[in-house]
Amino acid sequence: MDIQDHRQIGQRQELFHQQEEGAGMVFWHPRGLQLYRAVEDHIRRRMKALGFREVRTPQLLSRALWEKSGHWDKFGGGMFQLEAEGRAWALKPMSCPGHIELFKHRRRSWRELPLRYCEFGAVHRNEPSGALHGLARARAFVQDDAHIFCRADQVEAEVRRFAETLGRIYRDFGFPAGAQVVGFSTRPAERAGGDAGWDRAEAALAAAAKAAGIDLVPQPGEGAFYGPKLEFKLADRAGRLWQCGTIQYDLVLPERLDASYVAADGRAARPVILHQAVLGSVERFLALLLEQHGGRLPLWLAPDQVLVASVSAGAAVAARDAAAAFEAAGLRVHLDDGDERIGRKLALGRKLGIPAVAILGAAEAAEGSVSLSLPAAAERRLPLGEAVAVLARAAGAPA
Ligand SMILES: [Zn+2]
Predict the structure, then answer these.
(1) Are 306 and 360 in contact (CB under 8 A)?
(2) Does the annotation mark 96 as catalytic?
(3) Alpha carbon of 240 to ligand 1 centroid (Å)
(4) For residue range 151-193, what is the model confidence (pLDDT) as tens digits?
(5) Are residues 266 and 353 part of one domain?
(6) pLDDT number for residue 15
């Protein structure tokens, strides 16, 4: 099987590039950012359906907060630091403390739980340069970071719903159910918290996975120091597994950052915090996605969904009008109304991985139609309005 590296696909399709001055960072070109947004928007829709509210928290926070949260101890070497006005700061490597500050901003009642936040958080981690690998291992990436604040008796239902949705989202993106492996990382030798808490946390995750019909691969001793995790891994075309989604039960942070709510009996109580992510790193997921599809993404995801090309100079105006009509319907359009031969325009469209093609020649220009080809369907000449409707229907994201 011919497996294409996502970096080659990114170069050929003008999606992104990287260069030495920003080692581990990504320059997203317009077409790449269109793909990025399409992926983000789909996650946004699914998270909203699960009851998450989207938030945004600061990029840079004082070192004192990272010390308090414990990230400085465990993660400090991987954090980019700077100094301003005599204070020490650090770029966030994750959004957890930000979300906890949102939760703590005012008094919370048991009635508000489960309270669910999600963020497309731009994070930085100082990976050694030897470990960098295109989008799959970068120093700056966006983590679809989500947290649920809930009671212990709500954990199982939350984890089950999230786990079911994860599987569904991976299938939406074209990863078959068989491409997913879910690891269950349990208590490590060096850990915080007592055994009773660990027993409860591990039992809740295992029961939720069972209810969601997920077979777990045991990973004894591989849990985080703060709690057990479910780790959702996707296999790439070569069969290598990459960690993407995760659900983690946190036994430490609520205490450390003193998060509390007012329980039904009027007393202060500690919430459970669940850390979750669907994609993990959006960049890494895009690497997998591009390789999974060999750069030929399905219509709903493709950076440009339709190539609108004129056959002759006389059809250029009609091509521009058609492109405007497709765009007005919310489609992503690549217009080619230049003087080149149609064969070259189509070849460029294939190179860029544009799945649909709308061609306009003299006949189409005269009658207000386009010749439309969709993936795996014969070309049809349709009135422009109908072609727009047909393509818009075919290009919808999975329901
Ligand atoms: Zn977190």
Answers:
(1) no
(2) yes
(3) 26
(4) 999 999 999 999 999 999 999 999 987 788 999 999 999 998 8
(5) no
(6) 98
Catalytic residue among 6, 7, 139, 147: 147
The radius of gyration computed from the CA coordinates of the chain, to the nearest angstrom, equals 24
Regarding pTM above 0.90, the answer is yes
Domain that holds residue 343: 306-394
Same domain, 387 and 273: no
Q: Looking at the structure, do residues 98 and 180 belong to the same domain, yes or no?
A: yes
Q: Are residues 312 and 268 in the same domain?
A: no
Tokens 């996975």 label which residue? 209
Q: How many angstroms is it from 102 CA to the middle of ligand 1?
A: 13
145 labelled catalytic: yes
Residue of 6, 96, 191, 248 with catalytic role: 96
Q: Considering only 18-32, 86-100, 176-190, 255-269, which range has the smallest mean pLDDT?
A: 176-190
CATH number for position 257: 3.30.930.10
Give residue for tokens 């001055």.
21
Look at the chain and report how many structural domains it folds into. Answer: 2
pLDDT attached to residue 1: 44
pLDDT bin (cut points 50, 70, 90) of residue 2 is low
- Output the 3-class SS for 15-84: CEECCHHHCCCCEECHHHHHHHHHHHHHHHHHHHHCCCEECCCCCEEEHHHHHHHCHHHHHHHHCCEEEE
Ligand 1 mean position, distance from CA 284 (Å): 18
Whether residues 49 and 164 fall in one domain: yes
Q: Which of 237, 257, 292 is the last residue of a domain?
A: 292
112 shares its domain with 215: yes
> Is 229 known to be catalytic?
yes
